[in-house]
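FORM 12-B: Structure-to-Sequence Request
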């Protein structure tokens, strides 16, 4: 379904809630507005099912806005011999680049070789990576001489641990903006006739004749309660799936072992070229990424077990120091705490494995469970494979006779903003390019030339667009996810926040007291993006 720019505009919140009240029954209700939930809702709506998605906070507020910004097959999984997982992810990577070229583009990675066998080992492995991608491969990998390696990654250290740089391998994966992709999926759902609403929290499940037939919920902003009926209820709440499962069965066993990943944002001069750097094996066996993103450099990631499930997790001082110390070994300019402009942590929903103590060895492959009462739960996976996960969820619901037979349509479905656009290796991933063919509409709004946050390209028009067309409901929604200011430069985001709040209040009809509340809420969240002591 190709849409003209802003062809289907999400209604205002009052109309959205009235629609929920006035709809006697849905085919599908999806709980959770992250990658998996949004993908599932789009898949269901594309098949013709009446679909509703509810999200307790904002779309992609949790894990789905805190990824490494890579659409990738998983070089790590290839090294582990998980060929089928890598092949599937590379196929999905190619589909994403084709279906959302305004949000996903090729990025070259330099893998440096400091040992004699590094280059042939990585080179052969990455040629296999190319082969597994098939005709959807983004670009072929190639070996680099020492001079070519430094030309592609000029800030690479020339010596590490007493060993000199011998050369490297250049290969390609995809890069994207995770929160912007989530917003595009939300808009696609509306384009397809579905409905999504943020800040509506599921409080319980309803049943009839021993079968789940709906959800009770509350409006987190207005305080009202809702009872929503559906033939099929999908629990797609990521690391929080167990809490929803226990609404049905308080003794449901734990499915997820969460792992915390931390990333740091640095100025662009730490990686001034167009290439990223991949260190396949750090001192503790993890992978280190140094990636250009939105005119900054992001460095990560950690992989640490975590027992609690905060919506805004904090990075520990030890995690920050590990990333800085590891990056300093491989970069000619050594990053310090003074260079960090933002730090962010996300929780990965790793499927719990028996007798496995390390989260590095747990599975990211998705798992789907259907309870005796018919609650469909999906967890695990990653952004790259969100579409396949969604297809599997809806296929599973059909196989359990929760939905009628209908074929999947998302392999060739252009996402909102993508109609008429072609994949481009030269795609720069700028803040305006994320809007695709909605850009002319955005640029027609008041304040298009008035910059609020230079670090993230946020203008007054972006704020107005977020309020009118993207269901932004507060300053954090704009500064963290409709635009990425909070992830790029925390202090710059806070400086712009009062004006963002004022514009939002004007757009949404709020008073000065509301402006102060949304600023307090943002300041509380921003504390998690500052360096830990």
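FORM 12-B RESPONSE
SEQUENCE OUT:
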């Amino acid at each position: 379904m190709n849409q003209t720019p802003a062809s289907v505009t999400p209604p205002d919140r009052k109309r959205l809630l009235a629609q929920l009240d006035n709809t006697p029954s849905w085919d599908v209700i999806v709980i959770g507005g992250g990658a998996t939930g949004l993908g599932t809702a789009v898949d269901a709506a594309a098949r013709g099912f009446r679909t509703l998605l509810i999200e307790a906070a904002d779309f992609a507020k949790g894990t789905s806005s805190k990824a490494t910004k890579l659409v990738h097959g998983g070089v790590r999984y290839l090294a582990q011999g998980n060929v089928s997982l890598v092949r599937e992810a590379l196929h999905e990577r190619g589909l994403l680049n084709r279906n959302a070229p305004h949000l996903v583009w090729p990025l070259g990675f330099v893998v440096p070789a400091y040992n004699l066998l590094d280059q042939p080992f990585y080179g052969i492995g990455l040629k296999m990576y190319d082969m597994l991608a098939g005709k959807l491969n983004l670009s072929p990998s190639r070996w680099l001489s020492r001079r070519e390696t430094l030309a592609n990654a000029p800030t690479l250290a020339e010596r590490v641990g007493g060993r000199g740089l011998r050369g490297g391998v250049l290969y390609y994966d995809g890069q994207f903006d995770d929160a912007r992709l989530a917003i595009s999926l939300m808009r696609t759902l509306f384009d397809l006739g579905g409905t999504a609403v943020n800040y509506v929290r599921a409080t319980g499940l309803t049943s009839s004749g021993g079968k789940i037939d709906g959800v009770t919920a509350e409006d987190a902003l207005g305080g009202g309660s809702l009872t929503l009926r559906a033939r099929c209820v999908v629990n797609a709440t990521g690391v929080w799936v167990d809490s929803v499962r226990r609404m049905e069965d308080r003794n449901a066993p734990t499915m997820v072992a969460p792992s915390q990943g931390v990333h740091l944002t640095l100025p662009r001069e730490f990686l001034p070229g167009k290439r990223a750097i991949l260190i396949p094996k750090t001192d503790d066996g993890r992978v280190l990424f140094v990636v250009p993103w939105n005119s900054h450099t992001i460095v990560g990631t950690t992989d640490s077990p975590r027992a609690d499930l905060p919506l805004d997790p904090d990075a520990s001082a030890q995690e920050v120091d590990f990333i800085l110390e590891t990056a300093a070994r491989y970069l000619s300019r050594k990053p310090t705490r003074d260079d960090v402009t933002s730090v962010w942590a996300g929780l990965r929903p790793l499927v719990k494995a028996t007798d496995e103590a390390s989260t590095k060895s747990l599975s990211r492959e998705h798992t789907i469970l259907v309870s005796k009462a018919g609650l469909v739960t999906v967890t695990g996976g990653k952004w790259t494979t969100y579409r396949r996960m969604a297809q599997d969820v809806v296929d599973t619901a059909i196989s359990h006779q929760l939905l009628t037979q209908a074929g999947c349509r998302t392999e060739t479905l252009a996402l909102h903003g993508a109609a008429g656009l072609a994949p481009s290796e030269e795609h720069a991933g700028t803040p305006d390019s994320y809007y695709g063919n909605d850009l002319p509409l955005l640029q027609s709004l008041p304040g298009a030339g008035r910059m609020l946050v230079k670090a993230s390209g946020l203008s007054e028009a972006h704020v107005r667009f977020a309020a009118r067309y993207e269901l932004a409901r507060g300053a954090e929604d704009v500064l963290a996810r409709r635009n990425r200011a909070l992830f790029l430069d925390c202090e710059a985001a806070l400086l712009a926040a009062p004006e963002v709040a004022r514009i939002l209040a004007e757009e949404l009809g709020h008073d000065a007291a509301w402006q102060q509340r949304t600023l307090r809420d943002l300041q509380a969240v921003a504390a998690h993006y500052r360096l830990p002591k």
